[in-house]
Write a structure and sequence with these properties.
The chain is α/β, with parallel strands linked by helices and about 180 residues long. A hairpin with a 4-residue loop joins strand 3 and strand 4. Helix 4 packs antiparallel against helix 5. The chain binds adenosine-5'-triphosphate and magnesium ion.
Length: about 180
């Protein structure tokens, strides 16, 4: 009689990619760094990545920010994801309000950070952003720009509200439990 193979095949993935996006000041860095520490994934500050790879096409003086072609950036980030995977890394966590432009086929999910408008206004005020820049960012948060774009791009989106540390830590704990089912 032929012996049946009862051994369960391990279908868990070895590498994860998480894109963390959201309006400036909404808490991306806080969440991405925390998650990187918890999961031993590599944290990528996309702002530094842009500078290191000469990906900016100038500086917008009025908005006080770098001018970046988000599609070009996304292609370069996709290469970085592939390299990181080849190097045997555990995973990669991208921190940028443009990270949702990365091909969803290259990511496992996209976290969108959000916070109360009053909180956001306060955070941006502390950074001494101009009135116009604060207004623009508040509008982006009101219209949920990053989340809508991430959905349109085809990402699996998870929203994290960053106002209360206890709350977002609880949400991330649940996420990590879920990740353990999918990743080695
Ligand atoms: N739960 C929280 N409680 C109190 N302060 C917080 C909380 N989360 C974030 N902050 C503060 O809010 C500010 C903005 O957070 P953070 O730098 O993570 O946002 P960001 O989305 O990465 O911003 P940017 O897009 O400009 O990089 C920081 O000063 C951070 O310390
Ligand atoms: Mg940040």
């Amino acid at each position: 009689m032929k012996k049946q193979n009862t051994k369960k095949k391990n279908t868990k993935k070895k590498f994860f990619t998480i894109a963390v996006s959201g309006t400036p000041g909404s808490g991306k860095t806080t969440i991405a760094k925390f998650l990187a520490k918890q999961t031993s994934g590599r944290y990528v500050d996309v702002g530094t990545f842009i500078k290191r790879n000469n990906l900016s096409e100038g500086y917008d003086r009025k908005m006080k920010c770098l001018i970046v072609d988000e599609r070009k950036l996304a292609r370069r980030l996709e290469r970085a994801i592939d390299e990181e995977k080849k190097n045997g890394s555990r995973g990669i966590i991208l921190d940028s309000h443009m990270s949702h432009y990365v091909d969803p086929k290259k990511t496992d999910f996209c976290i969108i950070t959000k916070c109360d408008l009053k909180t956001l206004k306060k955070r941006l005020h502390i950074r001494k952003y101009t009135k116009q820049k604060i207004r623009d960012n508040l509008d982006a948060e009101i219209f949920d720009v990053c989340r809508q774009e991430a959905i349109e791009e085809g990402h699996k989106v998870m929203t994290i509200i960053t106002d209360k540390e206890k709350e977002w830590k609880k949400q991330l704990q649940i996420l990590q439990k879920d990740m353990k089912k999918t990743f080695v």
